[in-house]
Amino acid sequence: DKFSRFPFSNLLILGQFLQRQKILGIYRTMLRTIRQVPDEGDRKYLRDWASAEFKRNKTATDQDAIRMMITQANNHLEELQKSLALARS
Question: Can you give the pLDDT at residue 8?
């Protein structure tokens, strides 16, 4: 293996892969949650907003900034899920 001399590079690649999977999972969950929004106009607005935000940040490389964006995305997702739960009750 040509990378065996560089064990940290393999860890970095694995870490980036896992981080990407986590981000894609948040995005998918957000889109699934948005599908539950009853109003079609609100659904479209939220879908467009989520898509634009994730695309805008797609090329980010600063790890601290990426971690902050993951936290913000999770917070937005939780708020949306809480709002939907309240609307159903």
Answer: 57
Q: What pTM did the predictor assign? A: 0.81
Name the DSSP class of 4. T
Q: What share of the chain is helix, strand, coil (3-state, %, to 5)?
A: 80, 0, 20
Q: Token digits for 1?
A: 């293996």
Q: On the CB side of 80, how many CA atoms lie within 13 Å of its CA?
A: 24
Residue-wise pLDDT for 26-63, tens only, equals 999 999 999 999 999 999 999 999 999 999 998 998 98
Nearest-angstrom CA–CA distance, 20 and 38: 30
Gap between the Cα atoms of 11 and 82, Å rounded: 36
